[in-house]
Amino acid sequence: SDVPVNPATPPCAELHLHIEGTLEPDLVFALAERNGVDLPDPDVGALRSRYAFTDLQSFLDLYYENMAVLRTPADFAEMTRAYLTRARAAGVRHAEIMFDPQAHLARGVPLAATVEGIAFVLRTSEAEFGISTGLIAAFLRDRPAREALEVLEDLLAMDAPIIGIGLDSAEVGNPPSGFTAVYDRARRAGLHLVAHAGEEGPPSYIAGALDDLGVERIDHGIRCLDDPALVTRLAAEQIPLTVCPLSNVRLRAVASLAAHPLRQLLEAGVMVTINSDDPAYFGGYVDDNLHAIREVHKLTDDELAALAANSFRASFLDTGRRDALL
Ligand code: ES4
Ligand code: ZN
């Protein structure tokens, strides 16, 4: 088989993972067949040829298109189970998993179908896969904040098993400041708060996520390096960045893995973690990310261990399991 095998990487937590981004091309075709969904591509090979992205939007277009095959709770459950199986092999012991409820609602999939399909599998993940989990509802920043607030109210009303909220999709032109009401409501509900910022967008969006939304963690955040004062702040406050090297290369946020600013961030004292983002789209799971960055940046075993420790410290784990994993 052509499944890549990586030398062991240390056990870690994965904190930046879109469950819809784990939908592999083979599963797209299998679910399309099962659900009678017409696909634009004749076969998996033709679909795979469309994974050459030029920026975030070119990826998002295919990401939202492929989601059309997800119709029933069983579809979401199967995708989630496939991720956990692969994540366990990658060394993941804890996963904080984002999903995009609005992307499914917009296609006519009820909120309950999405939540129940994913949550059904997460309920037994620790026993079955040895992976503790938390579910994060991510809101689409290129849709109205009012819609996000309505979906959040629905999630709270149905007592959905979420630990937090996030903010994703097309970043530039959609700053954090538009979503203060959503984050205020989530904070009042006792939820954890994260947001994508500084992936393609400017450093001011990272500051906005911290100051306007009150997030505890920044997804991506690599563009903080354009603002030295912000880097100093992130280091001083130990704000975790969930960095995704292969994603950054594939979406051309950085020119190459060699040019990836991971080392600059570490040297500045920033709390960095390594994650896979959308592994079915960007060329690999968290072990593939760790491997690629280890080889190209000549990371030592101690440096890899420090990144793994960061992942547990930056997680929303309760102290009992965190200390057991550290
Ligand atoms: C995403 Cl890489 C990335 N950036 C922003 N939004 C997203 N949704 C899924 N993957
Ligand atoms: Zn992401």
From TrEMBL:
Stored Gene3D superfamilies: Metal-dependent hydrolases
EC number: 3.5.4.2
Recorded coiled-coil stretches: none
Cofactor field: Zn(2+)
Binding site for Zn(2+): H16, H18, H196, D277
Residues in PI-PLC Y-box domain copies: 49-113
Enzymatic class: hydrolase
Residues of the site described as Important for catalytic activity: H220
SUPFAM superfamilies: Metallo-dependent hydrolases (SSF51556)
Annotated function: Catalyzes the hydrolytic deamination of adenine to hypoxanthine. Plays an important role in the purine salvage pathway and in nitrogen catabolism.
Protein name: Adenine deaminase
Species this protein is from: Occultella aeris
Lineage: Bacteria, Bacillati, Actinomycetota, Actinomycetes, Micrococcales
